[in-house]
Sequence to fold (381 residues):
Amino acid sequence: MVVAPREWFDEHREAGRVFWHESTGTWFVTRFNDVWDLLVDPRLGHPSQDAFIRTLTPEQRETCAALLDFAARWPVFTDPPEHTVARRLLLPLFSTEENARVAAAVRARVESCGPESWHGADPLDAVLRPACRAGLAALLCLAEDQLDQLDDWSKDFISFVSRTSGYEEAAVRRSNEVLERFRSFVVGECTEHTDSLIGRLLWRALRDGTLTEVDAAAYYAQILTGLIEPTTSALATAIELLGGDPGLRHCFDTDPDAFIGEVVRLTTPFHFVPRRALVPMDLFGHSVEEGARVVLLLVSANRDWRRFPDPLAFRMDRGYPPHIAFGRGRHACLGAAMATKMIKTILRVLVETAFDSRPTPTPQVQWRTELGMHTPLSITW
Fold:
């Protein structure tokens, strides 16, 4: 649909605060102040899968019923009161103590790789992703080899929940089988592994009837799919910056939080958040019907020169708020502090080893930029 999504969004931002995209039936909001306000606007809720459901026959809907129910229960796809229950239940998983424990596992993995790993094979696969996987394994109290199977399952889930059309019977049946195995796995983790905080939290909610088994699986799937790739993307941007400008290493040493905030703004791994108009509303002079799809462009807002002068440049003086890549309000990313801690931990080891006092070649990151996400493919020196 779009060759260069970020530049395409930028063009529309300069043309107006909002634009209508006919082929997807979507209103896109482009500018920082507007996106900032609408992220907490009670007139907007999370979209449903109605567009996909309307393409299905009654028989196909029956085949998809369990998957549609599962997808609708992911915290990111719910509104209050269900969303409030999810956030309150999962909040202890991202406490200061848990963040520190996960960061320690990440640091141990990075240090085990050795300095040569940064400059030998692609550090994306040699260091960054393994370190992030170690963090996820620590968070979920899993052996890392268990993540391989979970990765395959999560890719299947992502493929289904992002589908808007195109029913494929074989794919749906496979996803149903995966869902049943995944549900059994999660319930087993809740009942058998008392050393797992997420297991204890979910088991308590299952036992007192706060959650069903499908709810528990949906919550677990949300955490499983949300940590590695966005964190890896921000790290790739940081490596690109630190390698290209040695002076930025001092910026990181001086104020790592401000440094990481600017890195995350420049990266904005997830380009937008979809919403649905809960009531008829006026959107900057445009009449929006109840049920209409409204997309808030995080990446366009984070590149808006009205809020961020010289928006494509790295600057440490951006002030508050530094970015909205993690969202805002009730749907703000619960794992933002954990992701920031992981990034800081990995960059600290990077600066101490790969980017020490010796001159190093400038790293080159190859990116895949799609309509909805910005992810690194490789890093070379």
Q: What stands out?
A: Strands lie at 18-21, 26-29, 44-45, 272-277, 281-283, 286-288, 293-297, 364-369, 374-380.
